[in-house]
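Q&A FORM
Asked by: J.P.
Topic: structure of Xanthine dehydrogenase family protein subunit M

PROVIDED:
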Amino acid sequence: MRPFELTAPATVEAALASPGTFLAGGTTLVDLMKLNVLTPQRVLDINELPLRGIDTSDGLRIGALERMSDIAGHPGVYPVISRALLLSASQQLRNMASIGGNLMQRTRCTYFRDVAMPCNRRDPGSGCPAISGANRMHAVLGTSESCVATHASDVAVALVALGAKIRLADAAGSRIVELADFYRLPGDSPDVENDLRPGELITEVLVPRLDWASHSTYVKVRDRQSYEFALCSAAVALDIQDSRIVDARVAVGGVATVPWRLTAVEAALRGAPVTTEALEAAASVAAEGARPLSANGYKVTLLKRTVLRALLELTEGSN
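REPLIED BY: S.T.
REPLY: Here is the structure written out as tokens.
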């Protein structure tokens, strides 16, 4: 780790007026600084800023510095969000990690984290060795010739499924953006991962009111049950009335370069009866557009099965 200056601004205004890299829980930033993947000269500890609070009175509002463990255990938080948070990390990490930091975490691609290797995300134009190298963990959706790294966040998948937005603030004011639009596909510039502008900070997460999202779940498939990143995950919420699916929200993680909304699966579910055959038919289109690599073709089948597993979990006893 290289030397850096650490300051702790006392107000949001002071933080936004100060150049530097924001530090909340530090569960991603500190790791990358130790590896010299990130080498900020100035770090701003923002933990004392008034960016906390969970409000469930009309939808869900979460302050960006709320810890993952506190959100997961808060009454009124949709099950799909709570479950995604609980499956994200160990209890110790959940006690430290903030929701805003979780949404900003970087990919776990081993090439990105190894400064001795080329990586277009870390060093634009240097190449993407994962395309022809060790790519078992990499993406099959949303990839490009420049990058095939997966997005790491679990809760971002749940939030994208529910149509969440985030508030971004800078010294000039604030703006609200759809979380799904915030993340950028790699294209030919994978180093630009999101729509965060210089000097901006996530201040809160806003989830619209969706009463039937109380009937939701998050399924995560990984190499080991203890703390591990997803090979594939599925966030699903269903509105079921009279043994028929009226509406659905489905997004997946671990298989794409950004949290991936499955609109084709949602369309197949709307109006469908709650039968195994109908759920299988909807899950069968989950991998449309997939581009598997040499070692991750299994994710095409795994994706379909993970979505189906989540659907079956939610509809058990409804048909």
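FOLLOW-UP: Residues 212-315 form a domain with the Enolase-like; domain 1 fold (CATH 3.30.390.50).
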